[in-house]
């Protein structure tokens, strides 16, 4: 009897996992990375390195809960666009935008970051793995000269950063932030 209960439980568990997988596939999105929030100290340093100004348009690719675009709008009064493929993150980001009353400055889009046109962006922020940063290079190269790109933690393989800054977080842990300007310079 115990064996049949074990088998039945295993079948139910596998069915549940398959159901969850098919629901994710059917939802039209695929995550390339898991969501890990950027610490507030890093957000501030990223925006400082990017020299964000009121006239700028800031894009955050893989925006998660929207904290970077909200911070940019609140601190600098600039327009900002957060892009994420995950519907749950998009919902959280839109809620944060509303809570902080910056809906007139911030737009959150559910989209694949590799399909976003960045020609009008002045600043792009990233917290993606190096292989994803590399895949973004063709889009980033279409940005107007003098545009700024900052990445929390991860470099962009084959592209020389102008600056690599370090910031200590409250964890305490030191984090690196990479900064580039367009046109991008090969290493």
Give a short summary of the structure.
This protein has 187 residues and is α/β, with parallel strands linked by helices.
- Roughly what fraction of the amino acids lie in strands? 15-25%
Question: Biggest sheet: strands, sense, closure?
Answer: 7 strands, mixed
Number of strands: 7
Main CATH class of the largest domain? Alpha Beta
Number of helices: 5
Annotated CATH homologous superfamily of the largest domain: Vaccinia Virus protein VP39
SSE class: alpha/beta
Order of helices and strands: HHEHEHEEHEEE
- Name the average pLDDT: 88
Strand order of the main beta sheet, please? 3-2-1-4-5-7-6
* Tally of structural domains: 2
CATH topology of the largest domain: Rossmann fold
Which regions have little confidence, pLDDT < 50, spanning 5+ residues? 4-29
Termini gap: 65 Å
Helix content: 25-40%
Using only C-alpha atoms, the radius of gyration works out to 19 Å
